[in-house]
Design brief:
Elements lengths: L1 E10 L2 E11 L4 E5 L6 H8 L7 E6 L2 E2 L5 H7 L1 E4 L11 H7 L13 H7 L1 H5 L10 H13 L5 E5 L7 H16 L3 E5 L3 H7 L2 E6 L2 E7 H5 L2 H8 L2
Parallel strand pairs: 3-8, 3-9, 6-7, 7-8
Antiparallel strand pairs: 1-2, 1-4, 4-5, 9-10
Helix pairs in contact: 3-6
Length: about 230
């Protein structure tokens, strides 16, 4: 579904990514792991067209997207839950969801406000609350729901549970599991290796802008040396 091939990305004269390659198959959950500052968010920004790579290619469902502006990448079927959530603070929960609603692929089982509320009942109870009035966990749920309202074929979550309380993190992971059961393709950045090895199909580890390891959950779970060296756990 998504193929990132040898991309190199820089901010001005400061190069961040050095030949990063990864892939996400249809219905797969794939992770991008690594310590802070290793290039994970830049990889996502490159995929989404926010920080276009200066070399390499990015293809989505066989189509080159590395030269497209961000709105065209989103229209192609990629949905982003950005780091920091970035919900609209002066819109209600319902308005945040309606603002991004789209079903460009014409899916019969499209995401709607009601189906997002069914996934996150806590949001239904706060439907008339402003985004700024929500807790961090509620804002993250809203950010996920807002991305789902675009009916993406690939959902990208950047720092899916960062800064959230344990109970809220568990709720986010339950949501990801339910999405996977629906066949949703997902690329996740997060630090919760235990949860990710339970849910994800494949993992990529970034170190100083390069992929230094990749493998399945079973393989990562059995490599404490890799986890200690690159993830600090």
């Amino acid at each position: 579904m998504l193929t990132v091939d040898s991309i190199e990305t820089a901010y001005g004269v400061s190069q961040v990514l050095f030949g990063v390659s990864l892939s996400v198959g249809a219905g797969q959950v794939v992770t991008l792991l690594g310590r802070n500052g290793m290039g994970k968010t830049t990889t996502v920004r490159s995929i989404m067209g926010i920080a276009p790579p200066k070399a390499g290619t990015i293809r989505f469902e066989g189509r080159a997207i590395h030269g497209l502006p961000p709105y065209r990448v989103a229209q192609a079927g990629l949905g982003l839950v950005p780091e920091g959530r970035q919900v609209f603070p002066n819109l209600t929960v319902r308005e945040n969801l309606v603002a991004t609603a789209a079903n460009r692929a014409g899916r019969e089982a499209a995401w709607r406000v009601e189906t997002v509320f069914a996934l996150f009942p806590q949001l239904a109870a706060r439907a008339r609350s402003l985004g700024a009035a929500l807790s961090g966990g509620e804002q993250q749920m809203l950010a996920v729901g807002r991305a789902l309202m675009t009916n993406p074929r690939l959902l990208i979550l950047d720092e899916a549970t960062e800064g959230l309380a344990p109970l809220v993190r568990a709720e986010i992971w339950r949501c990801v599991e339910r999405l996977k059961a629906r066949g949703q393709s997902i690329l996740i950045i997060d630090k919760d290796v235990r949860a990710l090895t339970r849910i994800a199909d494949r993992h990529y580890i970034l170190e100083k802008g390069q992929i230094v390891w990749s493998g399945t959950s079973a393989e990562l779970g059995g490599r404490e040396d890799v986890q200690h060296r690159y993830l600090g756990v």
